[in-house]
Amino acid sequence: MHNETDGNTRICGLIGHPLGHTLSPKIHNMLAEMTGINLVYVPFDVQPERIADALPGAQALNILGMNVTIPYKNAVIPFLESIDPLAEKIGAVNTLVRDEKGNGFRGYNTDMTGLYRSLEQEGIGLAGEDVILLGAGGVARAVACLCVMKGAKHIYLLNRTMEKAKTVADEINAAEGKECIIPMRLEDYSGLPDVPEKYLCIQCTNVGMYPKEKAVVIDDPSFYQKIHTGVDLVYRPLKTEFLKLAEASGAKTFSGLKMLLYQAVEAFELWNRVQISKTQADQVYEAVHEELQAHTGLVLIGFMGSGKTTVSQILAEKLAYHCLDSDANIEQQQKMKISQIFADKGEAAFRTLETESLRNLAEQKERRMILSAGGGLALKEENRALMRQLGKVIYLKTSPQTVYERVKEDQTRPLLQGDDLMGRIERLEAEREIFYQMAADEVVVTDGRTPEEVADEILRVTHLL
Ligand code: NAP
Fold first, then answer.
1. Which residues form the domain of 67?
2. Nearest alpha carbon, ligand 1 atom 3
3. 322 and 421 assigned to the same domain
4. CA angle (57, 59, 62) in 5-degree steps
5. C-alpha of residue 206 to centroid of ligand 1, in Å
6. Number of independent structural domains in the chain
7. What's the 162 CA to ligand 1 centre distance in angstroms?
8. How far is the CA of 207 from the centre of ligand 1 (A)?
């Protein structure tokens, strides 16, 4: 969705390094389309040694406005013509607007105002709240300032590195002339005093971001009993491990996607002197939400006979995804049956082929794909990491009895030839269980379920439909 460009088209963009995949162009170009403003928004990956050239360069090219992301939110400040008092207080800018005098750029912090607007939208107030902030980086500092400004009752700033939490707290407290922020070591969370209405907790670290989605700053469920609402500023994935734990303890949960949207909306409004309505913002939210959801590949792992092939075909149909079987892929590439590869080249050679084939798939970055993974793939750490690059990994857990019933007539599986089939299934499954668990984002039990029911359960746990 882009405006037609012509001689009057204005340029806005994002500077950062490395930029990777960013949703900002989609958001701004949609806003331009909706408001009929003749503007295009593009990413600019700026090398660290060129940051001093970036702002004068943008000015020379008459660029209308810029967003700034990691690692330049502080680094651009010396090159600004002027700075908004709020951004100055926070010590970080993420939006550059042409200065009214017409020369350089004026720096703003719409991360903070965008977060506030998104919290308001979700009905989350800060006044009189007891707040826990996890992290003490650039964003945590902006959120801490916001909490002080909006009259939060107590603000506990918990960070892995205590000195950083203390520095942020000391600076804000000195500026306010009172002890607003209480710094704490992250591992001391059990020392947080009990408060009658529980805490609002805002997760401001980058822990749990794709592709390390299983990571979480605090994994102790008792911590989550202390909170009534969990907000994670991470939005990729939409449901982080932090949000899952908060939800499991009965807290309300919100991802960082609305913050991302509203920091962009506020920037767009500053550049173009327009007001974006809630209806327009909601429409953009739907589009980016859909993009985040739809761009999750799926990898089904599990023992032979767990239904990976059939279930992946059902899912491919429902999601309009491309479906691939890792064994079939190797057979096609090698022009040989798997049983033949085992017989001629041995198992070790086959395992190497499996890893090579996974690596090729990961390099293709196809996000609308379901891979039915060979039963032994999850055993190698390198394969587990590659599978996570491909998408969400789902372990189809199946009891040895069910596997036996499903595969007992099958002559094509090399590992199952010979006597005592049931005993071998039990032994192999027991050996592999730990690796499947390590590889998996989600575990879905297949015993007593039809392939359709298993596919529906996968869609439910991954929120893909
Ligand atoms: P930052 O300045 O680099 O700070 C990172 C923070 O994460 C620090 O407090 C750091 O603790 C902590 N941390 C990192 N790894 C950790 C680990 N393994 N265990 C415990 N703590 C760890 O980053 P930032 O600019 O504040 O950004 C933080 C997050 O906010 C990012 O994930 C970003 O995606 C998100 N964000 C979201 C939006 C949005 O619109 N939704 C906007 C901006 C940023 P130490 O001090 O101990 O290193």
1. 10-108+261-293
2. 137
3. yes
4. 115
5. 4
6. 3
7. 14
8. 7
Catalytic residues: 73
- 138 pocket-lining for ligand 1 (C-beta < 6 Å): yes
State the distance from the centre of ligand 1 to the C-alpha of 205, rounded, in angstroms: 3
347, 371, 440 from 352: Cα distances, Å: 9, 18, 21
Q: Which ligand 1 atom sits closest to the C-alpha of 215?
A: 18
Task: Please state, in angstroms and rounded to a whole number, the distance separating the CA atoms of residues 228 and 234.
Answer: 19
Give, using CA atoms, the residue closest to atom 15 of ligand 1. Answer: 207
Determine the distance separating the centroid of ligand 1 and the alpha carbon of 105, expressed in angstroms: 26
Cα distances from 97 to residues 25, 67, 269, in angstroms, run 17, 9, 10
Q: Is the CB of 369 under 6 A from ligand 1?
A: no
Do 266 and 322 sit in the same domain of this protein? no
Going by CA atoms, what residue is nearest to atom 46 of ligand 1?
161
pTM of the model: 0.70
Distances (CA, A) of 321 to 286, 287, 298, 299: 20, 19, 9, 12
Is 238's C-beta closer than 6 angstroms to any atom of ligand 1? no
Same domain (yes/no): 221, 179: yes
Quick one: pLDDT at residue 102? 75
243 and 266 in a single domain? The answer is no
193 vs 195: CA distance, rounded Å: 6
The CA–CA distances, whole Å, from 92 to 31, 62, 79, 136, 140 equal 25, 23, 13, 13, 11
The answer as to whether 28 is a domain residue is yes
Which residue's C-alpha comes closest to atom 27 of ligand 1? 139
- Does a structural domain hold residue 5? no
Helices 110-121 and 257-272: angle between axes, nearest 10 degrees: 120
Tell me, rounded to whole angstroms, the distance of Cα 8 from its chain centroid. 36
- Determine, yes or no, domain membership for 4: no
- 455 with 317, same domain: the answer is yes
Nearest CA to ligand 1 atom 21: 160
Task: Evaluate: CB of 375 within 6 angstroms of ligand 1.
Answer: no
Residues 289 and 317 in one domain: no
Q: 330 and 280, same structural domain?
A: no
Based on the domain organization, do 311 and 284 belong to the same domain?
A: no
CATH number at residue 102: 3.40.50.10860
CATH of the domain at 244: 3.40.50.720
Question: Mean pLDDT per segment of 10 residues, for the chain of length 465 residues?
Answer: 78 92 92 97 96 94 95 95 94 93 91 95 95 95 96 97 97 94 98 96 93 87 98 92 96 96 98 97 92 80 94 91 92 92 93 94 83 94 93 95 90 73 92 95 94 92 72
Is any atom of ligand 1 closer than 6 Å to the C-beta of 263? Answer: yes
